[in-house]
């Protein structure tokens, strides 16, 4: 469709709407704030939870915005945990038929981003500044405000009708910010350098550059080695990276030390290093070797622990013995004494049988097949074949021919 603009009306045949004029002006005047003065619509902090938009003018799609005096806007309270970025915008609202300024509140986040601008058939927005609302903040400083007026994608400077642009305020603003940050960075660097000198000393500091140069090749080799280690750890651990693999290996090592200390016991501890556990086990082994040699079992530190333990069974501890007493009424049929469940096989048995008439003393040596008995109440002793004493693998059996006695006392020797 062909259109033209603007001509005199004859009998009302040339009537024009506001959007026709906006379209006309927008064709040669770009969007943004007017450049002169440089404070035009600048956003200023008030050292509280408010900001001020300075006097000035702006152009939005062929429509003009004019702020005749400093205009104060409120900033919502900060969160106690998360940060937020609010955006100060000029909004041309088609439905409301006006342009006005307001604070477009951002979302709380640990790493927040500013809200996006609306630019469609219903509204068109320009961004004047972003305001960082840090967690727990009770006031806004100028350092929290980022000036967006020169960003052509968010705001921009009106062009097409001006010859010069006054950027004095913007330059001063960025110059001040640069100076503040430069001083902060310079102080941080000086503090770091002083700390480094205190640690290194003058001689070491003088050789620092040479050391860095010398170690460059080593660092590259380490990177290559780490790549190989990463490949190897996939076969040895369940971890997916070097840090995880190292942590897993340390965990396994600690578990291993605890298992060893639980088995061996005192003096080993789960908190010992492997070297400490090794030294303590070696000391225990040396003590075992020394004790075996004292007991006649020739031993050396070069032998295995199992071999040394086996030698313990060869130590001569002397003959075992057992003794007891049995009343006549507790014997089998009143005459049979049977002793079992000894932990050795007797080789020598002594018996003492007492009565009101006499006493008997019996002696048997199984290794030589000899039996002897003496009785004070008879004129002769028992013969070998007649003596009723029989040795078993875990005890013995004795049958007394006479029921007229009080008790039997016995001693068995291995």
Radius of gyration: 54 Å
Could you give the distance between the termini? 131 Å
| Low-confidence blocks of residues | none
User: What structural class do you assign from the helix and strand content?
Assistant: alpha+beta
Question: Rough shape?
Answer: elongated
Share of residues in helices: 25-40%
**In sequence order, what are the helices and strands, one letter per element?**
HEEEEEEEEEEHHHHEEEEEEEE
CATH topology grouping of the largest domain: Triple-stranded beta-helix
Main pleated sheet:
5 strands, antiparallel
Number of domains: 3
Strand runs, count: 18
Order of strands in the sheet with the most strands? 11-18-13-14-15
| Tally of alpha and pi helices | 5
Report the top-level CATH class of the largest domain. Answer: Mainly Beta
| Mean pLDDT level | 79
CATH architecture of the largest domain: Sandwich
Strand content: 15-25%
Fold topology:
Blueprint: H1 18-26, E1 32-33, E2 43-45, E3 50-53, E4 56-60, E5 63-67, E6 71-74, E7 84-93, E8 98-104, E9 123-133, E10 145-147, H2 168-236, H3 242-264, H4 274-294, H5 305-312, E11 321-327, E12 336-339, E13 348-354, E14 359-365, E15 370-375, E16 389-392, E17 395-399, E18 407-413
């Amino acid at each position: 469709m062909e259109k033209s603009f603007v001509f005199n009306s004859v009998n009302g045949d040339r009537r024009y709407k506001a959007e026709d004029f906006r379209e006309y002006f927008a064709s040669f005047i770009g969007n943004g704030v007017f450049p002169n003065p440089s404070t035009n619509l600048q956003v200023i902090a008030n050292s509280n939870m408010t900001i001020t938009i300075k006097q000035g003018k702006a152009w939005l799609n062929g429509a003009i915005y004019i702020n005749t005096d400093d205009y104060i806007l409120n900033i919502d309270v900060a969160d106690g945990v998360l940060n937020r970025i609010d955006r100060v915008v000029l909004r041309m609202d088609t439905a409301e038929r006006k342009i006005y300024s307001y604070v477009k509140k951002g979302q709380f986040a640990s790493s927040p981003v500013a809200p996006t601008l609306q630019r469609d058939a219903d509204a068109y927005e320009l961004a004047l500044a972003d305001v960082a609302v840090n967690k727990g903040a009770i006031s806004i400083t100028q350092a929290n405000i980022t000036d967006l007026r020169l960003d052509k994608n968010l705001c921009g400077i009106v062009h097409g009708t001006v010859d010069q642009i006054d950027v004095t305020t913007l330059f001063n603003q960025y110059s001040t910010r640069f100076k503040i940050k430069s001083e902060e960075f310079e102080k941080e660097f000086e503090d770091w350098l002083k700390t480094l000198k205190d640690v290194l000393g003058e001689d070491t500091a003088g050789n620092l550059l040479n050391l860095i140069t010398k170690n460059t090749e080593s660092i590259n080799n380490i990177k290559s080695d780490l790549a190989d280690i990463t490949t190897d750890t996939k076969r040895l651990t369940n971890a997916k990276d070097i840090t995880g693999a190292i942590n897993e290996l340390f965990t396994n090592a600690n578990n291993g030390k605890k298992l060893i200390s639980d088995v061996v016991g005192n003096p080993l501890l789960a908190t010992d290093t492997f070297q400490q556990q090794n030294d303590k086990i070696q000391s225990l082994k040396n003590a075992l070797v020394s004790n075996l040699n004292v007991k006649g079992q020739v031993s050396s530190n070069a032998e295995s622990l199992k071999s040394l333990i086996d030698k313990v069974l060869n130590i001569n501890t002397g003959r075992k013995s057992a003794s007891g007493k049995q009343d006549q009424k507790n014997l089998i049929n009143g005459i049979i004494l049977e002793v079992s469940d000894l932990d050795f096989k007797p080789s020598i048995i002594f018996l003492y049988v007492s009565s009101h008439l006499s006493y008997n003393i019996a002696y048997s040596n199984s290794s030589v097949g000899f039996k002897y008995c003496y009785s004070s109440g008879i004129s002769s002793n028992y013969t070998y074949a007649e003596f009723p004493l029989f040795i078993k693998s875990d005890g013995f059996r004795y049958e007394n021919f006479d029921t007229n006695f009080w008790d039997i006392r016995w001693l068995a020797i291995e």
